[in-house]
UniProtKB/TrEMBL annotation:
Organism, as annotated: Lingula anatina
Function: Alpha-L-fucosidase is responsible for hydrolyzing the alpha-1,6-linked fucose joined to the reducing-end N-acetylglucosamine of the carbohydrate moieties of glycoproteins.
Alpha-L-fucosidase C-terminal domain location: 372-461
Tagged with keyword Signal: yes
Protein name stated in the entry: alpha-L-fucosidase
Highest taxon, organism lineage: Eukaryota
Enzyme class of the recorded protein, top EC level: hydrolase
Domain Glycoside hydrolase family 29 N-terminal: 21-361
Keyword terms, alphabetized: Glycoprotein, Glycosidase, Hydrolase, Signal
Family under the similarity heading: Belongs to the glycosyl hydrolase 29 family.
Any single biological process term in GO: fucose metabolic process
InterPro entries found in the cross-reference section: FUC_metazoa-typ, Fucosidase_C, GH, Glyco_hydro_29, Glyco_hydro_29_N
GO molecular function: alpha-L-fucosidase activity
GO CC term (a single one): lysosome
Length: 465
Protein backbone atom coordinates (compact mmCIF):
# COMPACT_ATOMS: atom_id res chain seq x y z
CA UNK A 1 0.00 0.00 0.00
CA UNK A 2 1.39 3.40 -0.94
CA UNK A 3 2.16 5.87 1.85
CA UNK A 4 -0.02 8.92 2.02
CA UNK A 5 1.72 12.27 1.60
CA UNK A 6 0.85 13.13 5.19
CA UNK A 7 2.36 9.92 6.55
CA UNK A 8 5.41 10.28 4.30
CA UNK A 9 5.90 13.79 5.60
CA UNK A 10 5.67 12.51 9.18
CA UNK A 11 8.42 9.94 8.59
CA UNK A 12 10.63 12.52 6.89
CA UNK A 13 10.26 14.82 9.90
CA UNK A 14 10.88 11.92 12.32
CA UNK A 15 14.00 10.79 10.41
CA UNK A 16 15.29 14.35 10.34
CA UNK A 17 14.71 14.69 14.09
CA UNK A 18 16.55 11.44 14.85
CA UNK A 19 19.41 12.44 12.55
CA UNK A 20 19.69 15.85 14.18
CA UNK A 21 19.62 14.25 17.62
CA UNK A 22 22.43 11.93 16.57
CA UNK A 23 24.45 14.85 15.24
CA UNK A 24 23.76 16.89 18.37
CA UNK A 25 24.97 14.04 20.57
CA UNK A 26 28.45 14.42 19.07
CA UNK A 27 30.66 17.01 20.67
CA UNK A 28 32.64 19.28 18.38
CA UNK A 29 36.32 19.99 19.17
CA UNK A 30 35.52 23.45 20.54
CA UNK A 31 35.24 24.60 24.13
CA UNK A 32 31.78 25.98 23.43
CA UNK A 33 30.61 22.47 22.52
CA UNK A 34 32.68 20.49 25.03
CA UNK A 35 31.62 22.67 27.95
CA UNK A 36 27.98 21.73 27.31
CA UNK A 37 28.59 18.08 28.18
CA UNK A 38 26.82 17.11 31.42
CA UNK A 39 29.11 16.06 34.25
CA UNK A 40 28.85 12.28 34.86
CA UNK A 41 26.98 11.88 38.13
CA UNK A 42 29.50 9.50 39.69
CA UNK A 43 32.08 12.26 40.04
CA UNK A 44 29.86 14.69 41.92
CA UNK A 45 28.59 11.91 44.18
CA UNK A 46 32.08 10.56 44.98
CA UNK A 47 33.34 13.63 46.87
CA UNK A 48 36.57 11.99 48.14
CA UNK A 49 39.52 10.89 46.01
CA UNK A 50 43.19 10.02 46.49
CA UNK A 51 46.05 11.28 44.32
CA UNK A 52 49.27 9.24 44.21
CA UNK A 53 52.43 11.14 43.21
CA UNK A 54 55.06 8.52 42.39
CA UNK A 55 58.00 8.82 40.04
CA UNK A 56 61.78 8.96 39.75
CA UNK A 57 61.71 11.89 42.19
CA UNK A 58 60.77 9.29 44.83
CA UNK A 59 64.37 8.04 44.71
CA UNK A 60 66.09 11.16 46.11
CA UNK A 61 62.88 11.86 48.06
CA UNK A 62 64.25 15.08 49.43
CA UNK A 63 63.61 18.78 49.40
CA UNK A 64 61.31 21.51 50.58
CA UNK A 65 58.44 22.87 48.51
CA UNK A 66 57.54 20.37 45.79
CA UNK A 67 59.98 17.47 46.09
CA UNK A 68 58.41 16.02 42.92
CA UNK A 69 60.19 18.90 41.09
CA UNK A 70 63.57 17.59 42.26
CA UNK A 71 65.10 17.33 38.78
CA UNK A 72 64.08 20.87 37.94
CA UNK A 73 65.34 22.35 41.21
CA UNK A 74 68.65 20.54 40.66
CA UNK A 75 69.30 20.97 36.93
CA UNK A 76 66.76 23.54 35.75
CA UNK A 77 66.84 26.14 38.53
CA UNK A 78 70.35 25.13 39.71
CA UNK A 79 69.41 25.61 43.33
CA UNK A 80 72.46 25.35 45.56
CA UNK A 81 70.87 23.19 48.25
CA UNK A 82 69.91 20.54 45.68
CA UNK A 83 73.34 20.62 44.08
CA UNK A 84 74.92 20.23 47.52
CA UNK A 85 72.53 17.44 48.47
CA UNK A 86 73.41 15.43 45.36
CA UNK A 87 77.15 15.91 45.83
CA UNK A 88 76.87 14.78 49.45
CA UNK A 89 74.57 11.82 48.77
CA UNK A 90 75.58 10.31 45.41
CA UNK A 91 78.87 9.60 43.58
CA UNK A 92 80.32 12.34 41.34
CA UNK A 93 78.78 12.59 37.88
CA UNK A 94 75.50 10.87 38.74
CA UNK A 95 72.59 11.86 36.51
CA UNK A 96 68.85 11.87 37.06
CA UNK A 97 68.65 8.98 34.59
CA UNK A 98 70.95 7.04 36.91
CA UNK A 99 68.43 7.58 39.71
CA UNK A 100 65.75 5.96 37.54
CA UNK A 101 67.91 2.88 37.21
CA UNK A 102 67.98 2.55 40.99
CA UNK A 103 64.20 2.82 41.36
CA UNK A 104 63.26 -0.77 42.20
CA UNK A 105 59.73 -0.68 43.70
CA UNK A 106 60.61 -4.08 45.15
CA UNK A 107 58.04 -3.79 47.99
CA UNK A 108 55.23 -2.56 45.77
CA UNK A 109 52.03 -4.51 46.45
CA UNK A 110 49.13 -2.99 44.48
CA UNK A 111 46.62 -5.21 46.29
CA UNK A 112 47.75 -3.72 49.61
CA UNK A 113 47.46 -0.22 48.15
CA UNK A 114 43.94 -0.94 46.91
CA UNK A 115 42.94 -2.20 50.36
CA UNK A 116 44.28 0.96 52.00
CA UNK A 117 42.42 3.19 49.55
CA UNK A 118 39.21 1.27 50.21
CA UNK A 119 39.70 1.57 53.96
CA UNK A 120 40.25 5.31 53.48
CA UNK A 121 36.73 5.72 52.10
CA UNK A 122 37.99 6.99 48.75
CA UNK A 123 35.60 6.76 45.82
CA UNK A 124 38.20 7.50 43.14
CA UNK A 125 41.97 7.20 42.85
CA UNK A 126 44.28 9.13 40.52
CA UNK A 127 47.79 7.81 39.80
CA UNK A 128 50.55 9.85 38.18
CA UNK A 129 51.06 8.10 34.86
CA UNK A 130 53.79 10.63 33.96
CA UNK A 131 55.06 13.72 35.76
CA UNK A 132 57.04 16.61 34.26
CA UNK A 133 60.20 14.48 34.23
CA UNK A 134 58.67 12.46 31.37
CA UNK A 135 59.13 9.01 32.93
CA UNK A 136 56.04 6.88 32.30
CA UNK A 137 54.76 4.37 34.85
CA UNK A 138 53.56 2.11 32.06
CA UNK A 139 55.46 0.62 29.07
CA UNK A 140 54.62 3.44 26.70
CA UNK A 141 55.37 2.86 23.04
CA UNK A 142 56.54 6.46 22.67
CA UNK A 143 58.74 6.63 25.77
CA UNK A 144 61.59 4.33 24.85
CA UNK A 145 63.96 3.47 27.69
CA UNK A 146 62.30 6.06 29.92
CA UNK A 147 59.48 4.00 31.37
CA UNK A 148 58.92 1.65 34.30
CA UNK A 149 59.14 -1.50 32.19
CA UNK A 150 62.47 -0.72 30.51
CA UNK A 151 64.20 1.01 33.43
CA UNK A 152 64.11 0.60 37.20
CA UNK A 153 61.05 -1.34 38.38
CA UNK A 154 60.85 -3.40 35.15
CA UNK A 155 57.11 -3.56 35.71
CA UNK A 156 53.87 -2.01 34.52
CA UNK A 157 53.26 -0.11 37.76
CA UNK A 158 50.16 1.59 36.39
CA UNK A 159 48.54 -1.51 34.94
CA UNK A 160 49.10 -3.56 38.09
CA UNK A 161 47.37 -0.92 40.23
CA UNK A 162 44.46 -0.61 37.79
CA UNK A 163 43.87 -4.37 38.00
CA UNK A 164 44.10 -4.42 41.80
CA UNK A 165 41.67 -1.54 42.27
CA UNK A 166 39.14 -2.98 39.83
CA UNK A 167 39.38 -6.49 41.26
CA UNK A 168 39.24 -5.56 44.95
CA UNK A 169 37.17 -2.36 45.17
CA UNK A 170 34.41 -0.32 43.54
CA UNK A 171 36.73 2.70 43.36
CA UNK A 172 36.87 4.68 40.11
CA UNK A 173 40.35 4.62 38.55
CA UNK A 174 41.85 7.79 37.11
CA UNK A 175 45.19 8.97 35.78
CA UNK A 176 47.27 12.12 36.14
CA UNK A 177 49.27 13.02 33.03
CA UNK A 178 51.68 15.89 32.45
CA UNK A 179 51.42 17.44 29.01
CA UNK A 180 54.92 18.90 29.02
CA UNK A 181 58.36 17.57 29.98
CA UNK A 182 61.11 19.79 31.38
CA UNK A 183 64.06 18.50 29.41
CA UNK A 184 62.60 16.66 26.43
CA UNK A 185 64.57 18.01 23.42
CA UNK A 186 61.57 17.71 21.09
CA UNK A 187 59.46 19.80 23.45
CA UNK A 188 62.26 22.33 23.93
CA UNK A 189 62.53 22.69 20.15
CA UNK A 190 58.79 23.40 19.87
CA UNK A 191 59.16 25.89 22.71
CA UNK A 192 62.09 27.60 20.95
CA UNK A 193 59.85 27.86 17.88
CA UNK A 194 57.29 29.67 20.04
CA UNK A 195 55.01 26.64 19.71
CA UNK A 196 54.46 27.17 15.99
CA UNK A 197 55.56 23.53 15.56
CA UNK A 198 53.89 20.56 17.27
CA UNK A 199 56.41 17.77 16.96
CA UNK A 200 56.29 16.97 20.69
CA UNK A 201 52.50 16.83 20.73
CA UNK A 202 52.28 14.67 17.62
CA UNK A 203 55.06 12.22 18.51
CA UNK A 204 55.06 12.05 22.31
CA UNK A 205 52.48 13.53 24.66
CA UNK A 206 49.48 13.21 22.33
CA UNK A 207 50.05 9.52 21.51
CA UNK A 208 50.57 8.86 25.22
CA UNK A 209 47.09 10.14 26.06
CA UNK A 210 45.39 8.00 23.43
CA UNK A 211 47.47 5.01 24.49
CA UNK A 212 46.52 5.48 28.15
CA UNK A 213 42.80 5.68 27.40
CA UNK A 214 42.68 2.77 24.97
CA UNK A 215 44.84 0.47 27.08
CA UNK A 216 43.77 1.27 30.66
CA UNK A 217 40.36 2.96 30.22
CA UNK A 218 40.64 5.49 33.06
CA UNK A 219 37.44 7.16 34.19
CA UNK A 220 39.23 10.42 34.92
CA UNK A 221 42.05 12.31 33.17
CA UNK A 222 43.84 14.75 35.49
CA UNK A 223 45.85 16.84 33.04
CA UNK A 224 48.72 19.07 34.19
CA UNK A 225 51.76 20.94 32.86
CA UNK A 226 49.64 23.03 30.52
CA UNK A 227 50.83 26.53 31.40
CA UNK A 228 53.58 27.21 28.87
CA UNK A 229 51.45 26.85 25.73
CA UNK A 230 47.85 27.40 24.67
CA UNK A 231 45.39 24.56 24.21
CA UNK A 232 45.70 24.82 20.41
CA UNK A 233 49.31 23.68 20.67
CA UNK A 234 48.34 20.71 22.83
CA UNK A 235 45.45 19.74 20.49
CA UNK A 236 43.37 19.59 23.67
CA UNK A 237 39.90 20.06 22.23
CA UNK A 238 40.49 17.39 19.58
CA UNK A 239 41.55 14.88 22.23
CA UNK A 240 38.66 15.70 24.57
CA UNK A 241 36.14 15.54 21.70
CA UNK A 242 37.44 12.05 20.89
CA UNK A 243 37.30 11.19 24.59
CA UNK A 244 33.63 12.24 24.81
CA UNK A 245 32.52 10.88 21.43
CA UNK A 246 34.44 7.75 20.52
CA UNK A 247 36.73 6.57 23.31
CA UNK A 248 36.04 3.37 25.30
CA UNK A 249 35.18 5.54 28.34
CA UNK A 250 33.09 8.16 26.52
CA UNK A 251 30.02 7.85 28.76
CA UNK A 252 31.74 8.06 32.14
CA UNK A 253 35.08 9.84 31.79
CA UNK A 254 35.68 13.24 33.37
CA UNK A 255 38.50 15.73 32.75
CA UNK A 256 39.83 18.69 34.70
CA UNK A 257 40.67 22.20 33.49
CA UNK A 258 44.43 22.04 32.77
CA UNK A 259 44.55 21.83 28.98
CA UNK A 260 46.25 25.07 27.99
CA UNK A 261 47.61 28.31 29.39
CA UNK A 262 44.17 29.95 29.31
CA UNK A 263 41.89 27.06 30.25
CA UNK A 264 42.48 26.94 34.01
CA UNK A 265 39.25 27.55 35.91
CA UNK A 266 37.44 28.13 32.58
CA UNK A 267 37.02 24.83 30.72
CA UNK A 268 36.63 21.15 31.60
CA UNK A 269 34.17 18.94 33.42
CA UNK A 270 35.45 20.31 36.72
CA UNK A 271 37.82 23.06 37.79
CA UNK A 272 40.97 22.78 39.89
CA UNK A 273 41.88 26.48 39.41
CA UNK A 274 45.12 26.14 41.38
CA UNK A 275 46.80 23.63 43.67
CA UNK A 276 45.09 23.37 47.07
CA UNK A 277 42.15 25.40 45.77
CA UNK A 278 39.69 25.91 48.64
CA UNK A 279 37.59 29.06 48.01
CA UNK A 280 35.45 28.78 51.15
CA UNK A 281 32.29 29.73 49.29
CA UNK A 282 29.88 28.14 46.82
CA UNK A 283 31.08 28.03 43.21
CA UNK A 284 28.95 28.05 40.05
CA UNK A 285 30.83 25.14 38.44
CA UNK A 286 31.93 21.77 39.78
CA UNK A 287 35.40 22.02 41.30
CA UNK A 288 38.01 19.99 43.14
CA UNK A 289 40.41 20.76 45.97
CA UNK A 290 43.59 18.87 45.06
CA UNK A 291 45.64 19.07 48.24
CA UNK A 292 48.42 17.29 50.10
CA UNK A 293 48.81 15.60 53.49
CA UNK A 294 52.41 16.80 53.41
CA UNK A 295 51.76 20.55 53.48
CA UNK A 296 54.75 21.34 51.28
CA UNK A 297 55.12 18.52 48.79
CA UNK A 298 53.25 16.12 46.52
CA UNK A 299 56.15 13.68 46.29
CA UNK A 300 57.53 11.78 49.29
CA UNK A 301 60.20 13.58 51.31
CA UNK A 302 62.49 11.70 53.66
CA UNK A 303 63.42 14.96 55.36
CA UNK A 304 59.86 16.06 56.20
CA UNK A 305 59.29 16.60 59.96
CA UNK A 306 56.03 15.56 61.60
CA UNK A 307 54.91 19.20 61.76
CA UNK A 308 54.80 19.28 57.94
CA UNK A 309 51.95 16.75 57.85
CA UNK A 310 48.31 17.68 58.28
CA UNK A 311 46.73 16.61 61.54
CA UNK A 312 43.39 14.83 61.41
CA UNK A 313 41.71 17.95 62.76
CA UNK A 314 43.14 19.90 59.83
CA UNK A 315 42.22 17.20 57.33
CA UNK A 316 38.61 16.76 58.50
CA UNK A 317 38.19 20.53 58.56
CA UNK A 318 39.41 20.75 54.97
CA UNK A 319 37.02 17.97 53.95
CA UNK A 320 34.07 19.75 55.56
CA UNK A 321 34.95 23.13 54.02
CA UNK A 322 35.40 21.61 50.56
CA UNK A 323 32.27 19.45 50.41
CA UNK A 324 30.09 22.18 51.91
CA UNK A 325 30.99 24.51 49.04
CA UNK A 326 30.23 21.91 46.35
CA UNK A 327 33.74 20.64 45.72
CA UNK A 328 35.41 17.26 45.71
CA UNK A 329 38.57 16.71 47.72
CA UNK A 330 41.59 14.93 46.23
CA UNK A 331 43.96 13.91 49.02
CA UNK A 332 47.55 13.41 47.86
CA UNK A 333 50.09 10.91 49.17
CA UNK A 334 53.64 10.15 48.04
CA UNK A 335 54.88 6.52 48.06
CA UNK A 336 58.51 5.57 48.58
CA UNK A 337 60.84 4.39 45.83
CA UNK A 338 60.65 0.81 47.12
CA UNK A 339 56.86 0.85 46.72
CA UNK A 340 55.53 1.46 50.20
CA UNK A 341 52.87 3.91 51.36
CA UNK A 342 54.71 5.50 54.34
CA UNK A 343 53.08 4.88 57.74
CA UNK A 344 52.19 8.55 58.25
CA UNK A 345 50.17 8.54 55.02
CA UNK A 346 48.60 5.17 55.73
CA UNK A 347 47.60 6.31 59.21
CA UNK A 348 45.97 9.48 57.91
CA UNK A 349 44.11 7.58 55.18
CA UNK A 350 42.80 4.93 57.56
CA UNK A 351 41.78 7.60 60.07
CA UNK A 352 39.99 9.46 57.28
CA UNK A 353 38.15 6.23 56.49
CA UNK A 354 37.15 5.79 60.12
CA UNK A 355 35.76 9.31 60.17
CA UNK A 356 33.92 8.87 56.87
CA UNK A 357 32.41 5.59 58.07
CA UNK A 358 30.57 7.59 60.72
CA UNK A 359 30.01 10.84 58.86
CA UNK A 360 29.80 9.68 55.24
CA UNK A 361 26.04 10.27 55.20
CA UNK A 362 26.83 13.99 55.25
CA UNK A 363 29.52 13.69 52.57
CA UNK A 364 28.86 11.18 49.78
CA UNK A 365 26.16 12.24 47.35
CA UNK A 366 25.51 15.44 49.28
CA UNK A 367 24.67 18.85 47.84
CA UNK A 368 25.40 22.36 49.08
CA UNK A 369 22.75 23.77 51.42
CA UNK A 370 21.36 27.30 51.47
CA UNK A 371 24.19 28.15 53.87
CA UNK A 372 27.74 26.84 53.58
CA UNK A 373 29.08 27.85 57.00
CA UNK A 374 27.24 28.96 60.10
CA UNK A 375 26.33 32.55 60.82
CA UNK A 376 26.74 32.30 64.61
CA UNK A 377 29.43 29.72 65.36
CA UNK A 378 32.78 29.59 63.63
CA UNK A 379 33.97 26.30 62.12
CA UNK A 380 30.56 24.78 61.36
CA UNK A 381 29.97 23.70 57.74
CA UNK A 382 26.72 22.50 56.18
CA UNK A 383 25.73 19.89 53.61
CA UNK A 384 22.35 18.65 52.38
CA UNK A 385 20.85 15.35 51.23
CA UNK A 386 17.94 15.91 48.85
CA UNK A 387 16.58 12.34 49.04
CA UNK A 388 15.87 12.63 52.78
CA UNK A 389 15.56 16.43 52.97
CA UNK A 390 18.18 16.36 55.73
CA UNK A 391 20.65 19.08 56.66
CA UNK A 392 24.02 18.30 58.26
CA UNK A 393 26.14 20.61 60.40
CA UNK A 394 29.76 19.45 60.59
CA UNK A 395 31.43 20.91 63.69
CA UNK A 396 35.17 21.13 63.06
CA UNK A 397 38.12 22.16 65.18
CA UNK A 398 38.68 19.00 67.23
CA UNK A 399 36.59 20.01 70.23
CA UNK A 400 33.15 18.49 70.86
CA UNK A 401 30.71 21.33 71.76
CA UNK A 402 29.26 19.97 75.01
CA UNK A 403 26.60 22.17 76.58
CA UNK A 404 24.84 24.69 74.35
CA UNK A 405 25.65 24.64 70.65
CA UNK A 406 24.38 27.89 69.15
CA UNK A 407 23.75 27.77 65.40
CA UNK A 408 22.43 30.70 63.42
CA UNK A 409 21.56 29.04 60.11
CA UNK A 410 19.02 26.23 60.87
CA UNK A 411 15.44 27.38 61.40
CA UNK A 412 13.55 24.65 63.31
CA UNK A 413 9.93 23.71 62.75
CA UNK A 414 7.60 21.93 65.22
CA UNK A 415 8.62 18.60 63.68
CA UNK A 416 12.40 19.14 63.67
CA UNK A 417 14.64 16.47 65.13
CA UNK A 418 18.36 16.82 65.89
CA UNK A 419 20.65 13.81 66.11
CA UNK A 420 24.39 13.19 66.10
CA UNK A 421 25.71 10.82 63.43
CA UNK A 422 27.06 7.64 64.98
CA UNK A 423 25.54 8.31 68.42
CA UNK A 424 22.57 6.29 69.65
CA UNK A 425 21.60 8.59 72.52
CA UNK A 426 19.58 11.14 70.52
CA UNK A 427 17.55 12.98 69.50
CA UNK A 428 18.80 16.06 71.34
CA UNK A 429 16.71 18.76 72.98
CA UNK A 430 16.90 22.20 71.50
CA UNK A 431 15.45 25.69 71.77
CA UNK A 432 14.70 28.20 69.10
CA UNK A 433 17.15 31.09 69.31
CA UNK A 434 15.27 34.38 69.88
CA UNK A 435 17.35 36.20 67.21
CA UNK A 436 16.96 33.20 64.86
CA UNK A 437 18.58 29.82 64.60
CA UNK A 438 18.75 27.03 67.14
CA UNK A 439 20.38 26.24 70.50
CA UNK A 440 21.13 22.52 70.90
CA UNK A 441 21.61 20.89 74.29
CA UNK A 442 24.61 18.62 73.76
CA UNK A 443 24.97 16.22 76.70
CA UNK A 444 28.30 15.11 78.14
CA UNK A 445 28.86 11.99 76.07
CA UNK A 446 31.11 9.34 77.66
CA UNK A 447 34.30 8.63 75.76
CA UNK A 448 33.14 5.04 75.20
CA UNK A 449 30.08 6.35 73.33
CA UNK A 450 31.75 9.06 71.27
CA UNK A 451 31.06 8.20 67.64
CA UNK A 452 34.31 9.62 66.27
CA UNK A 453 37.12 12.09 66.79
CA UNK A 454 38.24 15.36 65.16
CA UNK A 455 34.87 16.62 63.82
CA UNK A 456 31.22 15.78 64.51
CA UNK A 457 28.06 15.93 62.42
CA UNK A 458 24.63 17.00 63.66
CA UNK A 459 21.71 15.93 61.48
CA UNK A 460 18.54 18.01 61.15
CA UNK A 461 15.26 16.74 59.75
CA UNK A 462 12.15 18.78 58.98
CA UNK A 463 13.75 22.17 59.24
CA UNK A 464 11.60 25.13 58.28
CA UNK A 465 14.33 26.26 55.90
Amino acid sequence: MALSYARLGFYIVLFSFITLQSIDSKFAPTWDSLDKRPLPQWFDDSKVGILICWGVYSVPAWGGWGAEWFWWWWKGANQTKYIDYMSQTYPPGVTFQDLAASWRAQLYDPNEWADIFKAAGAKYVVLTSKHHEGFTLWPSKVSWNWNAMDVGPKRDLLGDLAVAIRNRTDIHFGLYHSLFEWFNPIYLKDKANKFTTQDFVKTKTGPELYELVNKYQPELIWSDGEWEAEDTYWNSTNFIAWLYNDSPVKNKVVVNDRWGSRTLCKHGDYYTCQDRYNPGKLQNHKWENAMTIDKLSWGYRRNAPLSDYLTMVELTTTIAETISCGGNILVNIGPTADGRIPPIFEERLRQMGQWLKVNGEAIYGSKPWAFQNDTATHGVWYTYQKATDSVYAIVTGGKMPFGKLMLGAPNPSPGTQVTLLGYTGGPFRFDRNPPGGIAIDVPAIPASQMPCDWAWTFKFTQLAN
